[in-house]
Amino acid sequence: MREDITRLNVEAIVNAANTTLLGGGGVDGAIHKAAGPKLLAECKTLGGCLTGSAKITKGYNLKAKYVIHTVGPVYQGGDQQEEELLRSCYTSSLQLAVDYKIKSIAFPAISTGVYNYPKKEATAVAVSAVTSFLRSVPHEIKDLIFVCFDQECFDLYKHELASACDGC
Fold it and tell me: Which CATH number is 5-165 given?
């Protein structure tokens, strides 16, 4: 869907964070602003996060009960393990969702902003990682939303999901 991820009524939203987890621009800044200062205070206790990994906090002033923070790779041409790291962002976030018995989750287009991951390639990785995980790991997730900031992203996800699901 094309929407502001901070306004969604889901159990968890995923934050495309930086390694400090202390806020930044784009989705990260918007989530920190909407959640309020208690999110930053909790993030300060987490000791940062490695690229491809994920950590979970409360949602504070958000509708979402949880924020799952994941650090996507900075795109450097595609030969620096970017695809594996991006895939790991999605699977690490989903594993936390399973661990916390989360039933609804929303993902932004991780690494496609200032980290410059090409949107088409990032979309293919995201859909592949999520569908593979959900088919292979027992879970309670009933609703999974890819949230897009712009129409280009929305169109890419729509196409990729139709291909991955054979029209499901």
Answer: 3.40.220.10
Backbone angles phi, psi at 146, to 5 degrees: -95, 120
- Token look-up 């595609």 returns 78
DSSP state at residue 167: T
Rounded Cα gap, residues 53 and 88, in angstroms = 7
> Tens place of pLDDT for every residue, the chain, 168 residues?
999 999 999 999 999 999 999 999 999 999 999 999 999 999 999 999 999 999 999 999 999 999 999 999 999 999 999 999 999 999 999 999 999 999 999 999 999 999 999 999 999 999 999 999 999 999 999 999 999 989 999 999 999 999 887 645
**Contacts of 66 by beta carbon, 8 Å cutoff, 6+ apart:** 11, 12, 13, 56, 57, 58, 59, 100, 102
Dihedral (Cα; 97, 53, 9, 154), 10-degree rounding: -120
Model pTM score: 0.96
Relative to beta strand 54-58, strand 66-71 is: antiparallel
Q: Cβ neighbours of residue 106 under 8 Å, at least 6 residues apart?
A: 5, 8, 10, 12, 13, 14, 64, 144, 145, 146, 147
Domain ranges (residues) in the chain:
5-165
